[in-house]
């Protein structure tokens, strides 16, 4: 790997303001048409097309045709993880992290980050799982303990199946708004899916923001003695 050349190219791709806005708007994991991404970035359709072509060529974005339109999405969880990690270094992230809970924006409280849950709720759930001995930090990742295996199995999450996926199993992802880790990787994605299926959370339409339902608050308290 040519560190000087390769990292400089990646930094230049992500660091351009128009492309930053496009990548940021795709962190929820959904695919968006070029016209919508142009709107978010406040550029013309022609300008947006040129930027999107570069991001696709670099492998950061994937594109698919749906009728006459082309839809763009992040190419994978690693791209989302890199953007969130960079966001955690931003000076404004420190300001957001220091806001009192009642003054914090909804995005800080609970949001999707590509295919897993992020924000204060995700951080508190992660901390509760660690404190109660269901998860153990191992390097940059988490490992599930014996009692954790039973907990996740009872939730309908097939741990052995997740371990066979060609991705990080349970990654410690530094939350940019909380500055503490939440759970990413295959386990984080499975947890988010189960939370939606059980009606614990609901997506706020056309955004990354997630709201916690009354059922979610009740069930999470029963499971982890955690008050959201």
The number of distinct β-strands equals 11
Radius of gyration: 18 Å
- Unreliable segments of 5+ consecutive residues: none
> In one word, what is the shape?
globular
Proportion of beta-strand residues: 15-25%
Number of helices: 12
Quote the average pLDDT.
Answer: 88
Distance between the termini: 45 Å
Q: How are the SSEs ordered, and which strands pair?
A:
Layout: H1 3-15, H2 17-25, E1 32-33, H3 34-41, H4 45-58, E2 61-66, E3 69-74, H5 77-88, H6 91-97, H7 106-109, E4 111-113, E5 116-118, H8 120-131, E6 135-138, E7 141-144, H9 146-154, H10 159-163, E8 171-174, E9 181-184, H11 185-197, E10 201-203, E11 210-212, H12 214-224
Task: Explain what you see.
- This protein is an alpha+beta fold and 228 residues long.
- Helices cover 51% and strands 18% of the residues.
- It has 12 helices and 11 strands.
- α2 crosses α3 and α3 crosses α4.
What is shown here, in short?
With 228 residues, the chain is an alpha+beta fold. It is built from twelve helices and eleven strands. The relative contact order is 0.11.
Structural features:
alpha+beta; two-stranded antiparallel sheet; 51% helix; globular
């Amino acid at each position: 790997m040519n560190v000087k050349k390769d990292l400089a190219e990646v930094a230049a791709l992500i660091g351009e303001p128009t492309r930053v806005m496009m990548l940021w708007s795709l962190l929820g994991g959904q695919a968006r048409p070029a016209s919508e991404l142009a709107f978010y970035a406040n550029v013309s359709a022609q300008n947006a097309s040129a930027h999107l072509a570069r991001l696709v060529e670099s492998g950061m974005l994937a594109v698919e045709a749906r009728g006459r339109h082309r839809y763009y999405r992040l190419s994978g969880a690693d791209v989302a993880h890199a953007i969130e990690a960079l966001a955690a270094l931003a000076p404004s992230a420190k300001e957001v992290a220091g806001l009192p809970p009642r003054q914090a924006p909804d995005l800080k409280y609970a949001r999707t980050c590509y295919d897993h849950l992020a924000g204060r709720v995700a951080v508190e759930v992660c901390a509760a799982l660690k404190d109660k001995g269901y998860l153990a930090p191992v390097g940059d990742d988490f490992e599930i303990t014996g009692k954790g295996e039973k907990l996740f199995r009872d939730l309908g999450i097939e741990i052995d199946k997740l371990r066979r996926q060609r991705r990080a199993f349970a990654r410690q992802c530094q939350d940019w708004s909380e500055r503490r880790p939440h759970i990413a990787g295959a386990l984080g994605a499975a947890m988010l899916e189960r939370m939606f299926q059980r009606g614990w959370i609901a997506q706020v339409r056309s955004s990354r923001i997630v709201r916690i339902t009354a059922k979610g608050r009740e069930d999470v308290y029963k499971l982890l003695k955690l008050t959201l």
